Amino acid sequence: MKLEKHTATSRGYANHGWLQATHSFSFANYYNPSRMQFGALRVLNDDLIAPSMGFSTHPHKDMEIITIPLKGELKHKDNMANDWLFVKPNEVQVMSAGTGVFHSEVNGSSNEHLSLFQIWIVPNKNGVTPRYDQKFFPSEERKNKQQIVVSSFDDENGGLKIHQDALISRIDVDKDKEFVYHLKSQHHGVYLMNIAGNISVENDNLNSRDAIAIYETNSFNIKANEYSELLMIEVPLKGQ
Fold it and tell me: What is the domain-level CATH number for residue 195?
């Protein structure tokens, strides 16, 4: 088993006034040659967006884009006939950019900041027809158990689908509870983000917004030292 811990303070950070963006991997003006991506996981941005502000219409191509709101409400508009859809906490949004898509993402509230994770995963096929989907995932269904929110089209579960053999899941763990994560494949790795709380992964301790890359193993153990909320992104490593 190999473990690479990334503390919250080691991430890239940019303050644009209306947007405070924290980058787990190289993005925009943040460049770190040792943090380009983790296998097929290219982007994990931790964004805080000011009221009524957001990203104006812009393009994407050949990328699987997943957005997970944590607090506040996101408004989405695109050129696939989706006109200002709301995406709220406990919902997940996926967009396969494929041959090309234009979209806007803004804070739907005029008085509350929007906190979200934006994830980009490199697809296993290019040139697909662009698509959009979103789904509500009840928080009680991840209480001390894994809740799959995104997976590949080949997986028969309730998660939203993307064009990659990946698995995104959440779990909220009570203090002193333990959980064993089993990887789909020995050729995969897991990038675990501790959203909030304090946990131990094997011998590594993670505080809020600390992350750890785990690979060359079939499973690993998580223990919650206090109530903790976790995000786990399992992806093919592609020579990691």
Answer: 2.60.120.10
60 annotated to bind ligand: yes
Is residue 103 marked as binding? yes
Domain span holding position 26:
2-236
Each of the 240 residues of the chain gets a pLDDT tens digit; together they read: 999 999 999 999 999 999 999 999 999 999 999 999 999 999 999 999 999 999 999 999 999 999 999 999 999 999 998 999 999 999 999 999 999 999 999 999 999 999 999 999 999 999 999 999 999 999 999 999 999 999 999 888 889 999 999 999 999 999 999 999 999 998 999 999 999 999 999 989 999 999 999 999 999 999 999 999 999 999 999 754
Tally of domains within the chain: 1
Tell me the one-letter amino acid at 219: S
CA distance 35 to 47: 18
182: annotated binding-site residue?
no
Side-chain-side CA neighbours of residue 129 (13 Å): 2
| Residue 6 assigned ligand-binding role | no
CA–CA gap between residue 6 and residue 3 (Å, rounded): 10
* Rounded-to-integer distance, Cα 207 and Cα 141, Å: 23
User: Is this model's pTM higher than 0.90 or not?
Assistant: yes
